[in-house]
Amino acid sequence: MTGGTLKIVFTGEDLARVRIASRIDELWEMAMSLHVLQKPGGGKDMTDWRRQARADLAATGLLKLVRQTLVPLMPIKAYFPDFLTPHQAQVGPQNGIDALADTPPSRVRREVDQLRGHAALPATLDDLARGNQRAITGLASLAARYCQTAFASHRTTMEHALGRERARLTRLLGDHGVEAMLAALGPRMRWRPPILEADYAAGQYEIQLRGRGLTLIPSYFCRYTPVALADPSLPPVLIFPAPRRTPASDPGPNPGPDDGLPDLLGTTRARILRCVAATTGCTTSELARRTGTSLSSASAHAQVLHRTGLITSTRHANMVIHQITRLGSDLIRYQTPP
Question: Do residues 4 and 200 make contact, with C-beta atoms less than 8 angstroms apart?
Answer without folding.
Answer: yes
